[in-house]
Amino acid sequence: MPGTQTLVNELVTKLKKRRVEGSQETALLTAELLRSVISQLKVPPTNQAETLIEAVKTVGELLVAANPVELAVGNIVRRVLHIIRDEDFSVATSSAGGDDRETAEENGFRVQTVAAGPPSRSPSLHAILDRTPDSERAHHSSRDGDSFEGKGKSADRNAESWKLKHDVIRAVNELIEDINSCHEQIAEQSVELIHQNEILLTFGRSRTVREFLCAAKEKRRSFRVFVAEGAPKYQGHALAKDLGARGLQTTVITDSAVFAMISRVNKVVVGVHAVMANGGVIGPVGLNMVALAARKHAVPFVVVAGPHKLCPLYPQNPQVLLNEMRCPSELLQDGEFSDCMGVCNGSGNPLLNVVNPAFDYVPPELVSLFITDIGGYNPSFVHRLIADYYSADDLDLQKRTTS
Amino acid sequence: MWWRSPSFILDKQQSDTVPHQRNPRDTLPLPSPPPFSMADTLQNPNPENNISAYYQTRAAHHAVVTGDWLAQAQAAIGRDPDDSTDTTVATVAGKPFSVIDEFNSWRKQPELAEAVAAIRALAAVIRNCQATTMMELEIELKKSSDSLKSGDTTSISLTAGCDLFMRYVTRTSALEYEDFDSAKSRLIERAEKFGEISCKARRIIAMLSQDFIFDGCTILVHGFSRVVFEVLKTAAQSKKLFRVFCTEGRPDRSGLRLSNELAKLDVPVKLLIDSAVAYTMDEVDMVFVGADGVVESGGIINMMGTFQIALVAHSMNKPVYVAAESYKFARLYPLDQKDMVPALCPIDFGVPIPSKVEVETSARDYTPPQYLTLLFTDLGVLTPSVVSDELIQLYL
Amino acid sequence: MDARRAPRTVSDPKVRKVGFFTAPPDRSLSGPPDHRIFSFLTSPPPVVDNSSPSAGNSLSPVMIPPPRHSSANLSPLRRDSAEYFPPSASPTSPASFSDDVAAAAMGRGAVAASSSLPGGLGFDIAALKSAASSVPASGLTTVSVVNNFPIGISEKGGGVAVEMQNDQSTRSKSLKEKTTKAERRALQEAQRAAKAAAKAEGVAASEKKGGDRPQEKDRKKEVPQPRMQYDDKSRVEKAKRRAVVKQTEARNRVELFRHLPQYERGTQLPELESKLFELDPMHPAVYKVGLQYLSGDICGGNARCIAMLQAFQEAIKDYSTPPEKTLARDLTAKIGSYVSFLIECRPLSISMGNAIRFLKNRIAKLPLSLSEMEAKTNLHSDIDRFINEKIILADKVIVKHAVTKISDGDVLLTYGSSSAVEMVLLHAHELGKQFRVVVVDSRPKLEGQLLLRRLVGKGINCTYTHINAISYIMHEVTRVFLGASSVLSNGTVYSRVGTACVAMVAHSFHVPVLVCCEAYKFHERVQLDSICSNELGDPDVISQVRGREDINFLDGSSNSAILQLLNLIYDATPSDYVSMIITDYGMVPPTSVPVIVREYRREHLWI
């Protein structure tokens, strides 16, 4: 499939060179790429699900490796994998339902798993006694496929394989639709959170936040917004301009004035880069400072996030591992410190280091509320959303790529 | 005077009578406490039969002074037909069957968790059961599990294991489609596999936690926990560079054993007295503890001192990770430290304690969920709030 | 007294004694400072200070207060009401100066000048007033003083009269509401008599008694006045009429900061320059400093303060008393007008306010017997002394203390550019300590770059980052050193905007925060947040990011009604984020700031 290969390479280069920025754009590109990978894939009559999963995983590995800190890529790959498993499961149960329920021991096993929920659901205490000590469990869906094959019921399986692919593509389309429209659903909830004469603070630039605030404005709420500029990208300026253009009372403040202003702020509303499984968030650098200040003054810290930002991983040392360093020239102008840059001390280390991280981690304790496209949730509930969106089997996607 | 208040006297009476109620049921004389503590316990107001059975097994499995102590314990239980190495269930078949005997023989194996022993004991109940219908079997099992549970009210994982198995028997839909004999054999087979499941759970936990142990980190551990040891062992085997601070783990000094084991694996270990935790917390990157039980709130019940460590770690923004197999999840909801069945254990102070001096002999404490960062279980990495989710799914 | 103070703190930062102890019967002049601090900790009972081996000094600090003082302690309430509700204070007050009514009521020339200050920015007014009111004080007296005379004299001897002198101004204000003109006249006569008596007792007595009791009165008198609120239309109008610099108010003022002055930027400078030769009342040295403030050539608390004092020195040198006026009053008025000019250029910092207060005090305390020439040299050396002891020497002491907290392998974080911190770092480097410095900076001033350049130039290993990365960098930091513009008496550190963020993050990472601040910057005002008092910088500098031409979103739309830019200059760091304040008095916890403020106030009034 040369067509998909070039597409994949294209996106990989884009990701590597950091030419795609913003989790939404990345998520959309990834989803679209995976859709074309799936649609161009020739599905063999047997093992369709396995084949699809393998194909998606291979592409996913490449994409994730291209930009490991852009978590949206991994999220979408996992979502698509989950969709495949889900569709496979529903196709399989619809065929398995009916007469062949009590046929064999193998089927007894299957019925059990049906009772325990979809096969890809994360392990639960409930099923602990059913768990076999070997690791065959992960593959039983495919094994089921084989067993059915072995029983010579392949007549309708061809139709099913076509159906599976079709269903998967349809579901991926829905996912893309979801990502595109999540702003609107999030924005709809703004009237419940923003009230007359309130003062809000936001940080950096986020399309979701912009839509959220504007939606409240359209509902004739008059409120005031402070925008912290968000060094080193200073995207707050752009956001402020957008908000000003839409008629919102906007005031731009420096990042350093966040603490000074927060005592007058009623709510902090921010967009983030990713939401981790423990309810912590990865956001633009400086967000932790804002969250701490909000906590100090008991100001609610509200995170608006679309579904593509939910990441099923637990953060470990996120300040270092889920971060990347940006160019020092964003802080020190070219040439200005060039004389100091080369200077080394006795042990050969440079005398002057410039640190310019891109992301920041906010622990779940500092987040008051998540506003997602399907409602508002506490940080402690994020793991549930993640269990709905992702399969436990796909969590190690990144591990495989890094090892 | 507070000690003359009715409630205090009542408490005291109860605590005096409890051991008497329990002793007759214990057909086996339990291993006596370590000899070095004898002299002190004589002077201590707490009689040695006040020591919870749970902590006696625990001491037998975890204590440092296993050699001579076990020998003495062996002598004390000389009339026991089972040797602790003998694991076959069939040996007890000749005698009138007792689930508690069964359980006690199982739990003498050091590698076997309490819950596994309980489930195996229940499997033996099924095997020996003359019931002919599922209903009868369930009733029989219920009786046995109740007597097991009341035999040692302090062990959380015993209770949780019994509950889990009972739940499996009553709920598993597969059983409904089978005839009685195949259902029975399936149950026995599952129960016997459970030992493997428990070992596998430890491996899963160890694997899950590897992501969280990074090179150059310093880990504080408290007491001896098989799971935590497995975690550290796996990390050492995968060539991670890390340092471990072991607390001494008074009163059973189980931390010493962990430090010995780790030293064998060439992991750099530093031993701390229990009171040095706050002092060293600065250098620590994460705290790893096991758990006797994980309760519904997401908090844990664990060896005395865990709460203290979690408090210190929390106030210094250090993550506290709990490694616990999911069969330790228990439907308990303690509100505070006193809201639990106290498990008592002997404390050796090294010097005679005058009989007027009271000694706090509780062996474990409750750590509320807000002080825990993550739980590593065989169900995955969970936040404390997920525990309740899982329990709700299982029991409601 | 002060001459001894600073060097002593250098040699031995003593542990303060806390708790009750009986003072030795004859404490000599060289009594350690801790005694005195102690005496202020327990200050409600009037403790006789150890500054001279006079008869009263054997008193224990726990002695029962003489009845005279109980009456004094009652007075602040009434006095406060007089100050805070000016219109009701005095029927005789000229209506136009209602903001400074107590002083105005005295009808003295110097007072009129001081009340012509448009600034009203808190302390400077307070400073003026303390100066002003103590000048004419000698002309007034009160019944209560006279009544208490015998009791006081039995214990204190000659000192009473002098204390009374400081006392009376407060009391006279409170009494004024009730007394008629005739009565006041009588009181004045009585006080004159008392003053004459005091003079007879000798200057020495006044010096030695002054240290303690009057301080207590001063403290009451100097409860900081409410600052000028710029949303008060009538007062702003009044201030404008008096102003030298014509400022145009910003068209779009940030709503939250209506109470602060918000002017259009860049309009004043050319106009002022053109006025350079027409401005008769302004001394050229002062004028130059004012322009430098305005253009931002001089910034930083110490630099601004020193520049101002040196300009005043020049002005005093060229000063000659006009006929039919006394030096003390006329010069105070003169200084007052200079100060109001400087305020128009840029709002005063608290440190400057304290320095001005000091200077006015010195002028007020000049012995009448001195000739003009002597008085001028006196003042000149006083200013020199202030600069040397309170700023230069204080910094040396701070450096000495702070360096002990730096050990090898430390990673020190500093924010912005503080002269004291820079000295600490350089000194530690000179001592050969091995450490790394993290310089955190923020827009728009980017002062950290200058510091960075100087530190790297000296060969110190530096890491540079911006304030948003503070959570990232804080993991590796072992100490945070911060400078301060002022430390307020609730322990709040008032400093460059962003300092609070740095301290907060450091606090959450359990990294100790050390604030280096000279004691002359302490102030008895309290402040809860950064909004109630602040300074607004030029908003336009926010829209452009230096060296980042790609960021030009706000170029066209700068400061429309709907889109505003806010450039705060300061913020207030709550005291719970501060582990330690390093001052010339040693290393103190933020909770001890009020003690130092009281201690220091007395000392600097009676320097």
From TrEMBL, chain A:
It comes from Salix viminalis. Gene3D superfamilies: Translation initiation factor eif-2b, domain 2 (3.40.50.10470). The keyword Protein biosynthesis applies. Keywords: Initiation factor, Protein biosynthesis. It comes from the Eukaryota. Belongs to the eIF-2B alpha/beta/delta subunits family. One of its GO terms (cellular component) is eukaryotic translation initiation factor 2B complex. Residues 128-156 have a biased composition (Basic and acidic residues). One of its GO terms (molecular function) is translation initiation factor activity. Pfam families: IF-2B. The keyword Protein biosynthesis applies. This is Translation initiation factor eIF2B subunit beta. Residues 111-156 are annotated as: Disordered.
Automatic annotation (TrEMBL), chain B:
Residues 12-50 are annotated as: Disordered. GO terms for cellular component: cytosol; eukaryotic translation initiation factor 2B complex. It comes from Salix viminalis (Common osier). This is Translation initiation factor eIF2B subunit alpha. One of its GO terms (molecular function) is guanyl-nucleotide exchange factor activity. Belongs to the eIF-2B alpha/beta/delta subunits family. Signal peptide: none annotated. It is found in: Cytoplasm, Cytosol. Keywords: Cytoplasm, Initiation factor, Protein biosynthesis. Component of the translation initiation factor 2B (eIF2B) complex which is a heterodecamer of two sets of five different subunits: alpha, beta, gamma, delta and epsilon. Subunits alpha, beta and delta comprise a regulatory subcomplex and subunits epsilon and gamma comprise a catalytic subcomplex. Within the complex, the hexameric regulatory complex resides at the center, with the two heterodimeric catalytic subcomplexes bound on opposite sides.
TrEMBL record, chain C:
InterPro entries: IF-2B-related (IPR000649), IF_2B-like_C (IPR042529), NagB/RpiA_transferase-like (IPR037171). Its main location: cytoplasm. Keywords: Cytoplasm, Initiation factor, Protein biosynthesis. Residues 1-15, 174-187, 206-237 have a biased composition (Basic and acidic residues). It is found in: Cytoplasm, Cytosol. GO terms for molecular function: translation initiation factor activity. Component of the translation initiation factor 2B (eIF2B) complex which is a heterodecamer of two sets of five different subunits: alpha, beta, gamma, delta and epsilon. Subunits alpha, beta and delta comprise a regulatory subcomplex and subunits epsilon and gamma comprise a catalytic subcomplex. Within the complex, the hexameric regulatory complex resides at the center, with the two heterodimeric catalytic subcomplexes bound on opposite sides. Belongs to the eIF-2B alpha/beta/delta subunits family. This is Translation initiation factor eIF2B subunit delta.
